[in-house]
Every structure is written in C-alpha cells, then in structure tokens.
Amino acid sequence: MIDTRRTALYRIYDADDRMLYAGIGFNPFIRLTRHGEEKDWWEEAARVDIEWFDTRAEAEAAEVRTIEQFRPPGNTKHIPVQPPPRFEVRPDEEAPYLTSHVAQAFRVSTTTVVNWEKRGMLIPIRRPHPRSTTKINRHYSERAVREFADYWESQSSA
What we know:
By secondary structure, the protein is of the alpha+beta class. The protein folds into two domains: 7-70, no CATH class; 97-157, no CATH class. It has helices at 28-38, 56-70, 99-106, 110-118, 142-157; strands at residues 7-14, 19-25, 45-53, 97-98, 125-128, 136-140. The strands form two sheets. Strands 2-1-3 form a three-stranded antiparallel beta sheet.
C-alpha cells in the first residue's frame, strides 16, 4: 500500500547555516521535539526549514537527495556508497587528541565525531579513562586529525 499522506522534509541548521540533520515525517513538530530530547547535536540547532510534499515517496526522494548532497553530520542513512577514507592511528604514534578536541577543531558536536567513527572515517585508539575502570577515552593522533582535516576541507570546497 502506498502512503499518500502529505509528508514534510525538515532540515536543521546551526548558527553558521551548516545543515546538521535532514529528516521526514507526517508531523515534523513531533519529530523535532524528539530530536531535542534525544540528540546531542540539537544544542547547535539554530534554524529549521520545513518543506511539504504531497506523498511520503516524494519526501523520501527529496530527503535522500538532500543527505547525499549536504552530508549532514547527524544523518547516518543515505550516505553515498563511496567508501570514506580511513584515518587510523598507528600503535607507535602519540595520540593526544580526545573526541572533544576533534569536535572543537571541526566545530561540530562530539556526537558528530562518534558518527564519523561509526562510518569508519576516523579511527581512534581506545585507552582506559584514568579515573574509571569502565569508561574508555578515545584518542586521535595528530597525523590522523591532520589528514582528516585535509579531507574535510576538500569535501567542503567540492
């Protein structure tokens, strides 16, 4: 059965007008409320654009195009199949950068950095937290962060 209800495509932007997330829903206001409760990147949200489509299929197609074109860091689905580069830390390298350092350097949330990890784009060394037996710190080498920065810049200018 094809769903013919009007469906919204919503795009969430930060204060610098970078897209943080794109999604669809029959009631975008409920979805936005949930994002506000559940997503770390929501703290960066400054503006939401809503575009209505006559059917869910039209909205889904527009969502996929939007995510493929802008690659919002909050989205993990619909990312182009081209394998991302991997920036691994060699065992002999110093790894002075924590997730929060990488997030600050790229002006993104720590959730975005973790999403980059999930996509296999940035590979950390996992080390025990100095004050905890259960928590693990993620560390990144200077080389890995520098190579990722070059990649990030090339994607931004493309």
